[in-house]
Amino acid sequence: MRLTIIGFFLLTSCIFSIEEPVFIDVHKKVVFPKHYIVYKTKHTINLDGKPEEEDWQNASFTEPFIDIEGIKVPQYKTQVKMLWDDQYLYLYAEMEEPHIWGDITNHDAIIFYNNDFEVFIDPTDDTYNYTEIEVNALNTTWDLRLDKPYRFGGKANDYYEIEGLKTAVEIAGTINDPSDMDQYWAVEMAIPLEVILQKKRKKVKGPQAGDYWRVNFSRVQWEHSIDSGGYSRKKVDGKLLPEYNWVWSNQGAINMHCPERWGYIEFTDNELTHKKSPIEIENLLTKQVAYALLEQIRLGAHQKMLDNKVGQTQKIQSIHLKDEIFEAKFVKTYSGFEIYIYNQTLEKEFVINEMGRFKSLQ
Question: Where is the Carbohydrate-binding domain (predicted)?
């Protein structure tokens, strides 16, 4: 007979259990990702930074971006819309901006030292081997891939190139001219699907209808100074003021490299004239609870649990969230730790390890 998580809890508690359950409050740590349906276009998209095609006109914008901490309304409006076809994920981002400027012109330079627009993509929703694209108002780009998040020891591959990536920028105003006021700048992208999906073990050229990817967008915005007729990042007492980060889906922290907090985009074969309702992401709430527990134990207020002896288990008080009930237990292992989670409401069992590997045990 299969050993359930509850059975596992009872078995291990007889030998290695720490009797007193620990209370880990994840209610303010669980992030609820936004969801955007990407409709399929059968028409040619002319990549010029202008959304003049009929499908672009009919595509819906996302909600306006929010501050990365989710608590402040940005000074300027930012919105994105998306389409796809058999080759590309198309993206159009429009950013209000009275002073459009940029001075970075070398590809793969650190683009966020200028105001920029950034795209983050994890097509397998496992937080590993994800792609980042940055572009400034001069249409200078930086594309890179990370093997895992920085806080888990991830390394960025700056030599990674998205072969076939296309970008265009439209300036509604005049760039690098402090004498006037501008309206906005916009980025249009064609991101080759097959290249992004190269991380899959089998050859996949593109998503299928009903597939979903973890995606988020960030707008980096610096306060500026005008000196000798030019722009630069503003300093006070010789120190740069920190940048603003404005995002589509709430990150809950000043860190874009938390892929488990990104939003979801869903691909549909429907054309824009045939709207559909979002699909339900399987086991989403359990996954978000698991990552919130992981964060609290590995990097947050409950790091003392890492001092437990190998083989010890420690029960976590029941978690009630959005009409679902979770039982969880921390297990110290030779390599790190595991958190076993039983969703009582769905009667499903899961585990996540210290490196964020989340899986179902059924």
Answer: 48-201
